[in-house]
Amino acid sequence: MSTHNQLLSHQVNAVNALAHHFDEVTVISPEYEESNLNSNVRVLKYEWDSSRKILSSIKFITHLLGVCRANRPSVVFYHMTDFHAALSMPFLKLMKIRSVIWYAHKKNSVYLRISAIFSDKIVTSTSGSCPITGSKVEVIGQAIDSSVFSPRFSRESFNFNKLLHIGRLDPSKKPEYILEVAHNLREINNQISLTFVGSAGSTRNLAWYSKFQSQCESQDWVKIQSGILRKEIPDFIVKFDVFVHAYLGSLDKTLLESTMMKIPVITENPEYISIFGSWCGKSNPTLTEEYLSMQSLENHELDAEINRRAELTIKNHSLDGWAAKLSSILCTEASRGNH
Question: Strand order of the sheet with strand 137-139?
Fold first, then answer.
């Protein structure tokens, strides 16, 4: 848990938001740097070495069970840690301590399936963002901090030239497809430029990433740069006209962050489209159809739709709303554990 982690820096704000609803919050994390945590939050750091998974797993379970014995928690919450949940939830079950896991990803891992057996609740962002279904699953939206991802200025007119994609760069995110679409759109609008912000998702993608990077660098209208810190995203994203995204899995936070900031979004993501609709009116549009439909709108029409989407994001996917819904679920499970 660190503000310098490009992927998980938002967890600091998430913990603080949850801490408003509880007397005490203990976080167990392999990564921690001093940050502005609430006074009722304490962090226990343990070492995790992926090359020594068995030893690291033992250390984690030892830390968790030590906390549970010394200061019996009302409930244990796991945030996108299905492996750790699968390891330790059976022990919590024996100790009669309730457990809840947050999972927002399409991958139906064996660890998630084990966690689903032992957990008391599974919380997720949207109905299509978790492969597990049933009465245990609760949909509570995403956790976007509206005080951070707020519009920086009011637009009187719109341009559609500078396209931006932020996120992990690997084949599942379809960056090569985005590049192809932008290349074809330049036949209509030769002012289009495209910026990718991100890095290879894992070491196994390094060869693919290197090839894709070379492909981008061969085009003078395409730029690729390494990931930026989450706190830097708002001031960076307003330099662009359109956020473009092609991932077909769960609902990415960057989609909602852009929407909340009133940056026009074009995507093929089914979760996003099920919430906001598409520019062209289709349930499964292509990026090209979305760009051309958006571009054809009058300024007042585009402005009205952007505002509608931003308001919907604030209503259903704000950090405060997420924390309130999650804390209600955690408190309910805690009270059941006391009976």
Answer: 75-79, 98-102, 121-124, 137-139
∠ CA 316-321-324, rounded to 5° = 140
Q: How far is CA 31 from CA 37, 61, 64, in A?
A: 14, 16, 15
Please tell me the predicted confidence (pLDDT) of residue 231.
82
pLDDT at residue number 34: 67
- Tokens for 204? 């196994």
pLDDT at 30: 85
Which residues contact residue 74 at a Cβ distance below 8 angstroms, ignoring those fewer than 6 apart?
Answer: 98, 330, 331, 334, 337, 338
Q: Cα(320)–Cα(324) distance, rounded to whole angstroms? A: 6
pLDDT at position 7 is 47
List, in order of start, the domains of the chain with CATH numbers.
Answer: 11-143+319-337 (3.40.50.2000), 162-317 (3.40.50.2000)
Q: Using one digit for the tens of pLDDT, what is the confidence trace for 118-152?
A: 999 999 999 889 999 999 999 999 999 998 998 87
Joined together, the tokens standing for residue 237 give 């994203």
d(CA 112, CA 89): 11
Taken in order 22, 24, 25, 31, the sign of the CA dihedral is positive
Q: Looking at 219-252, list the stretches that DSSP marks H as alpha helix, in order from N- to C-terminal side.
A: 233-237
CA 30-31-33 angle, to 5 degrees, is 145
Chain CA centroid to CA 112, Å: 18
Please report the beta strands in the chain, taking only residues with DSSP state E, as ranges in sequence order: 25-29, 41-45, 75-79, 98-102, 121-124, 137-139, 162-166, 193-197, 222-225, 242-245, 265-267
Residues 6+ positions from 57 with CB-CB distance below 8 Å: 87
**Token pair of 311 as six digits:** 């308001």
Give the Cα separation of 151 and 235 in Å (integer): 10
Q: Which residues of the chain have pLDDT under 50?
A: 1-7
Alpha-carbon span 27 to 36, nearest angstrom: 14
